[in-house]
Amino acid sequence: ANGVSSHFHQAVGDNHDRIVLALRTALARSDGVIMCGGLGPTQDDITREAIADVMNVPLVRDQEIYDRIDSFFQARGRAMSANNARQADVPQGATAIPQVVGTAPGLICPVGNKVVYAVPGVPYEMTEMFERGILPDLRVRMAEAGEEGVIASRVLRCWGATESGLAEVLQGRIDVLDQAGDVTLAFLASGMEGIKVRVTARARTTVDVTALLDKEEAEVRRTITERLGDIVFGVDDESMEVAVANRLFARDLTLGVAESLTGGLIASRLVNVPGTSAWFLGGVVSYDSQVKFDVLGVPEGPVVTEEAAAAMADGVRKVVGSDVGLGITGVAGPDDQEGVAPGNVFVGLALPDRPTLARHLRVPGDRERVRQYGTISALDLLRRALDSPPT
Fold first, then answer.
1. What is the pTM of this model?
2. What DSSP state is assigned to residue 299?
3. pLDDT tens-digit profile of 224-267?
4. At a CB cut-off of 8 Å and minimum separation 6, what does 23 contact?
5. Is there a cis peptide before residue 274, judged by omega within 30 degrees of 0?
6. What residues does 285 pair with on adjacent strands?
7. What is the side-by-side order of every strand in the sheet holding 114-119?
């Protein structure tokens, strides 16, 4: 977000020679390096020593840091053990980043015309120190190098295609962008969240980068829709349940769900959306067949069929008094049920002024993935139906 490109990531164990090699390698290919961890008081905390070795300078004890660490323990009624003093050792020529939430300070270490930053590995200490100590220094260095800018990303969420299929559809666009160099596309398979297409752009200003993202989003959407249909359901943090919620709210419709296969997963995802009570009335987890018959009015007989899913959708509308009913049944496994193999999912959907519809879906994976994929598939069917005019 601050226009700094992160080129490489590497993990290295608590071994002095390996850390030195990793740090020298990092400096050979980058202008700046951020090291996380190894600044504590124990014998395996050797980041300071490794950095000093690379800088070819000794470690110098900083009395101000030492006094602060000592005060940290005194304030808690504890004596500071001798090994904590190591945290006050700073490579000669480096600048300490004072701690405000722990004991180990961070470091800003010049190595020629390059820089090494070191921060504690404890996440909340690292985050705070990065924002306060590293990011401002990076901004200054970027400005001095004439490399100020903004990097931003936008994520298009898709359901109904494979990662490889999306990549193939967008290959021509990727080839064009590789020539231009200011926008890139990347793909991320995210399980029950679908496939994510990330558009990343770099420009001098926020206005410029937003314009690039807007233009590329429109191009990517057009290409995907022409080849694969309406599979883009959200942008950035807009999950499938948010997409459904927005459509129900906009149309002033209420929803009820009847779940067998998913065992309440659909309702659980729906209530994650703030303001759910405005459109979600409730659900029935009819895991046992008799509950389907007695509560939802499903005709007695097989319950892993399209007909049963449609009857569940109709039944839950009556039970909770909703405008829309969504029903789902199927086989999660590991065994067959009613002669139906695991991975077969049946979704029913009842909307006002339309015939109740049902769909037979096949989803891959073990029991948990079948349930998760069944959940988002059912919600996607509802999303698409809400976008389609009555026929």
1. 0.77
2. P
3. 999 999 999 999 999 999 999 999 999 999 999 999 999 999 99
4. 33, 35, 50, 51, 54, 116
5. no
6. 259
7. 32-36, 114-119, 106-111, 95-97
